[in-house]
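Hello forum,

I keep getting stuck at the same step: I have a sequence, I want structure tokens, and every attempt I make locally crashes halfway through. Rather than fight my setup again tonight, could one of you with a working pipeline run this one for me? It's a single chain of 63 residues.
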Amino acid sequence: MKKRYKPHWVYYKEVFRSKFQAGCLKAKLEDNWQHGYEIGPLVEVKKLRTDKYVVRYTYDEVL
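Reply #2:
Ran it on my machine without issues. Output:
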């Protein structure tokens, strides 16, 4: 049986007031790796309890 590992998330240092602002950064991060030779990160926007948003990404392929 294969053991599932939790991904190692890297959080961007800024907290955003709107989901739109966080989404713009997400698109920028994804676009930077689109034409490169490496596999791009998995990027997602996460809502905090304070109704603010953070952007996090991982290079783990375990998901």
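The first strand starts at residue 10 and ends at 11. If your local run keeps crashing, start a new thread with the error log.
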